[in-house]
Write a structure and sequence with these properties.
Blueprint (H helix, E strand, L loop, with lengths): L3 H27 L5 H13 L1 H16 L3 H8 L7 H29 L4 E4 L6 E4 L5 E4 L4 E5 L4 E12 L9 E4 L2 E14 L4 E14 L9 E3 L3 E6 L2 E6 L2 H7 L6 E8 H9 L5 E4 L2 H4 L2 E7 L3 H12 L2 E5 L2 E5 L1
Parallel strand pairs: 5-6, 13-16
Antiparallel strand pairs: 1-4, 2-3, 3-5, 4-5, 5-7, 6-7, 7-8, 8-9, 8-10, 10-11, 12-14, 15-16
Helix pairs in contact: 1-3, 1-5, 2-3
Length: 326
């Protein structure tokens, strides 16, 4: 492990190199008698160590970038002070002050620059995110979303979310979901991202779906209230659904899930999204049975018992699984 003495020595050596680099820079820019011999000496100092040349170039680049070179040249044409050492000391101080200000400015920018935030819900979890502009995002179970409030942009990495967005025509809210981008046109909508499918349901207002990678050159589709867009395997399909079905699909916001003519297999998959205790359908015959109803998202056991009683099926618990069979 590096000790404090070693760190101190390394810091002192670096400070000395930077002081020498400042001396060379000032001499080259300030002295009228800069000669080829002096240039050869500077290059020899560069050859002694890469750190020498790096320190010099860093000072020179920063000085030129700050538009100070013209100031130095103007100063070079003025009568030189009697105390040359004092003059150099003041010049070294000026260079140090410049780089200190630059470092503080960079630090202030890093501290004040808005940072993207990641929001995650566990299995069975729920979270509401309030944006500075009054918009709200509600996250469903097992969902991950990256949010950049600075430019009104988010990315749904997995799961499902409901968006109630305050529309600003000059800076519309956008959401990236895989290869697709949803752009708010004044709306409320839900988005669900599975492993191989994206679904966008428009509850109110309008939104535009376009390519996230190349929106300017991609074909876009404008969704209106009641439209449900599904993207899978590179294809985008849009269907219209009645408001009641859209509201039922958002029942998770109140802790429920509603099924309309759903197969038991599909319903079990949906309930499993919210629970660590998983429902297993033992055979295809049971999985294909069709039913409907409203159930709490976090009670897989009650769901299994109610469905088994309604469809004349059997329920068996095996560790962390609830097995339903004929």
């Amino acid at each position: 492990m590096i000790g404090e003495a070693q760190l101190a020595n390394a810091g002192a050596a670096q400070s000395m190199i930077e002081a020498q680099a400042a001396d060379w820079l000032i001499a080259r820019l300030h002295d009228k008698d800069w000669t080829p011999d002096r240039q050869t000496q500077l290059e020899a100092w560069f050859a002694e160590s890469v750190a020498h040349e790096v320190a010099y170039l860093r000072l020179e680049a920063g000085w030129n970038g700050a538009d100070r070179l013209a100031v130095l040249r103007a100063a070079a044409n003025e009568p030189r002070p009697a105390n040359k050492a004092a003059s150099r000391a003041r010049m070294i101080y000026s260079i140090g002050a410049f780089f200190l200000c630059a470092a503080l400015g960079a630090l202030s920018y890093a501290v004040m620059k808005p940072v993207d935030k990641i929001f995650v819900t566990p299995v069975g979890g729920y979270k509401t995110i309030a944006l500075a502009d009054g918009s709200q995002i509600e996250l469903n179970t097992d969902t991950e979303l990256r949010l950049s409030q600075a430019d009104r942009h988010a990315t749904l990495l997995r799961g499902e979310a409901y968006f109630r967005i305050v529309h600003h025509a000059s800076q519309p809210f956008s959401l990236d979901v895989g290869a697709q981008r949803v752009v708010d046109l004044g709306t409320r909508f839900s988005v669900r991202r599975n492993a191989d499918e994206l679904r966008v349901a428009m509850v109110e207002g309008r939104a535009r779906i376009e390519s996230a990678a190349n929106p300017a050159q991609s074909q876009s589709i404008v969704l209106n209230r009641g439209d449900v867009a599904t993207a899978a395997q590179g294809r985008l399909a849009v269907v219209r659904k009645p408001p009641v079905l859209l509201e039922d699909a958002l029942s998770w916001r109140k802790g429920f899930v509603v099924f309309h003519h759903a197969t038991l297999g599909a319903a079990a998959d949906e309930i499993n999204r919210y629970n660590t205790e998983k429902i297993v359908i033992a055979d295809r015959g049971a999985a294909s049975r069709v039913f409907g109803g409203k159930f709490r998202t976090n009670d897989a056991g009650r769901f299994a018992n109610v469905v088994a009683a309604a469809l004349a099926l059997q329920v068996e618990r095996r560790g962390n699984e609830i097995v339903i069979s004929r």
